[in-house]
Design brief:
The strands form two sheets. A three-stranded antiparallel beta sheet has the order 1-2-3. A three-stranded parallel beta sheet has the order 4-5-6. It is globular. The chain has two domains: 53 residues, no CATH class; 88 residues, Nucleotidyltransferase, domain 5. Helices cover 38% and strands 21% of the residues. The longest helix has 15 residues. By secondary structure, it is an alpha/beta fold. The chain contains six helices and six strands, in the order H-E-E-E-E-H-H-E-H-H-E-H. The protein starts with a helix and ends with a helix. The relative contact order is 0.16.
Length: 141
């Protein structure tokens, strides 16, 4: 897959997960974000229509606090963007080995939906918690 196609496929998948409106159980496959070939170009289709991503990308740590984000959402709406991209690290999801916490990610998705925005998490799987950083160092010896 070409790098640009991979990028747009990744965006389409993220848009499917974090769409502003809840999708119904009977939603057809044609409503799932996908790429459609238009001549020599690929077109991103969201909600059955061409979708131009007008996004804002926040700093790597901006999405780590729902409290901090309270003042950011109105600015995104005012800027007339339709998509938010911000970092989500594995350290946020699994701060302690075997204990998963999706509250921040769930909160970002809910707030994006409430502001009629799409949410694309920029996944930082290499951002390690203290526990798995220690494990990685020990395994490298």
């Amino acid at each position: 897959m070409k790098p640009l196609s991979l990028f747009y496929s990744t965006i389409a998948c993220a848009l499917a997960v974090a769409a502003p409106r809840a999708s119904g159980a009977g939603e057809s496959a044609s409503n799932t974000p996908h790429l459609r070939q238009q001549g020599t170009a690929a077109q991103l289709i969201v909600d059955g229509k061409p979708f131009l991503v007008l996004s804002a990308e926040l700093g790597n740590n901006s999405g780590t606090s729902l409290e901090y984000m309270k003042s950011v959402w109105p600015k995104l709406v005012e800027a007339k963007v339709n998509t938010l991209m911000t970092g989500v690290s594995w350290a946020q999801i699994e701060p302690v080995e075997g204990k998963y916490d999706f509250r921040i990610v769930d909160g970002l998705i809910q707030e994006a939906r409430s502001h009629n925005l799409r949410f694309v998490p920029l996944w930082f799987a290499s951002s390690l918690s203290d526990w798995n950083l220690t494990l990685a160092v020990e395994e490298s010896k």
